[in-house]
Amino acid sequence: MDIPRACNAATWFVDRHVAEGRAGRLAIRCGGRDITYGEVRAGANRCGNALRRLGVGMEQRVLLLLADGPEFVYAFWGALKIGAVAVPTNTLLKPRDYEYILNDSRAAVVIAGEDLAPAIETVRPHLRFLRQLVVAGRPGPGQVGLAELVTAESDELDPADTTKDDVAFWLYTSGTTGTPKAAVHLHHDMVVCCEAFGRHVLEIGPDDRCFSVARLFFAYGLGNALYFPFHVGAATVLDPRRPEPAKVFDILTRERPTLFFAVPTAFAAMLQVADAERLYDLRSVRLCLSAGEPLPKPIYERWLERFGLEILDGIGSTEMCHTFIANRRGKVCPGSSGTLVPGYDAMIVDEAGRAVPPGEIGNLLVKGDSACAGYWNQHAADVRGRVGPHWRQVPAGRGRLFLVRRPLRRHDQGGWHVGVAGRGRERPGRASGGGGGGRGGRRRCGRARQATRVRRAGRRPRRVAGAGGGIAGLREAAARRVQIPALDRVRERAAEDGDGKDPTI
Q: How far is 394 from 171, CA to CA, in rounded Å?
């Protein structure tokens, strides 16, 4: 798809449907309510007008601390429409985390749920840039009610004069590997993901209905439950409650989604529900999708046996916006991550940056146009993650990709470098990235006890030593030392997690 230079994501994902005669089409099902595209447009416009009245301008950040529901959708698209930057934020963090994120992002406005506002108030004296705390629900002293704020606003709003390369939203990493970092995404990134993963893997159309266990504040959930369906005029099912297995089964039975997105821990928990295949009706579901953690082959096989549904596993990352390697309908290789999604390039290289032959182990490099523009205000992290603008690419479709240990790190403006993690004594030498090393890694850790092993389909992989730069790299490796025995797949896990390490990619 040729994305024009003048581009505002809210105009594409919302206004376009109204302009093309789909104002009455169902956009959101939430709590028994039907919300149409026309109503989404009006809600987003009122929210955008209210933000402008609060003094929010282009490129200024608006932090969203909201459960899945219409308020999140209106606030997200409303912020983007006025050229502001939405910052969806994990609702499971601690007040000290919100203090860091708010001061780092310099957000002047927070829109928070009533139950989450007290966490902001706890650290409010330390927030240097916050001007307004807007509450979806009953506001407290010094707070502004969202409903009251938008009631007087017009439901018409001209979009800001943004381009496809203007900043649209940020997503913070969790910080489990160090200081949380904001991955900066542009207005065109979501469209790229829709035309890649949405078109070629989901094969999503206007008659689909999406339900995602992963929340909207995750990169995985944001695509699953918002911009994939809104790209084609389909519907999404939103539920603010914790996604416990029985509740998820009830939603699948009652709301009749056609696309069901979850994570391996959710699929495993649902398989523990006795007689679920008899008690619940999943006949509406045509595809199940998994990401965020490796999907063990036994879970895939048990799910297929009990419900007759394939689970398409894939790899993605917050920095790449969504999934770039995935299995395909009718062509699943259980235990593998699948093949490259059209629009992305990848290669597996050795420590010297040379492409490895099939069956060998190395580091995964990925690039695509949905990659984030960089990390906000984190130059050193950017430098560590960059692999340069030029790529020796593995042709798409040439074999499947596998992971046998969790990979570590991270991205380039045009791609991703998945490095290896190690523990042990430190000695000079060139490393393959990962950890805290500089470009490609400047130090090497000997006597590695944990290694990332990446291969293409072929002979059985051998273990390779890991690398991480300096003490920071060692700490990062130790923090992420997770055994994934006999699991053949390649995954870049960016560690944006929450709700029991569930979904981010």
A: 29
Cα distances from 54 to residues 114, 126, 488, in angstroms, run 19, 21, 51
- Separation between Cα atoms, residue 74 and residue 92, nearest integer Å: 21
pTM of the model: 0.80
For 459-488, the DSSP string reads SPPPP------HHHHHHHHHHT----TT--
Give how far Cα 319 sits from Cα of 130, 173, 194, Å: 26, 9, 16
Contact present, 475 and 422 (Cβ < 8 Å) = no
Residue 108 zone, left/alpha/beta (φ > 0; ψ -120 to 50; rest) = alpha
Give all strands (DSSP E) within 205-334, no chain letters: 209-212, 235-238, 259-262, 287-290, 311-316, 323-326
The residue written with tokens 């999943």 in the block is 282
pLDDT, tens digit, 9 for 90 and up, residues 363-404: 778 889 999 998 999 887 776 665 653 222 233 333 455 544
User: What is the reported pLDDT for 383?
Assistant: 67
CA 421 to CA 444: how far, in whole Å?
A: 10
Stated as kind and residue range, the H or E segment containing 38 is helix 37-53
- Give the gyration radius of the chain's Cα atoms: 22
Tell me the per-residue pLDDT of 295-306, one tens digit each, with 9 for 90 and over: 999 999 999 999
* DSSP characters over 121-154: HHHGGG-SS--EEEEESS--TT-EEHHHHHHTS-
In this structure, the strands spanning 411-412 and 235-238 are unpaired
Say how far apart CA 70 and CA 366 lie, in whole Å. 34
Residue 21 in contact with residue 198, Cβ under 8 Å?
no
Query: Could you write out the DSSP letters of every residue in 403-414?
Result: ESS-----EETT
Count of Cβ atoms closer than 10 Å to residue 207 Cβ: 10
Residue-level pLDDT at 417 = 34
Token readout for 145 is 């009610």
Contacts 24+ apart (CB under 8 A), 240-243: 240/30, 240/31, 240/67, 240/68, 240/69, 242/499, 243/213, 243/499
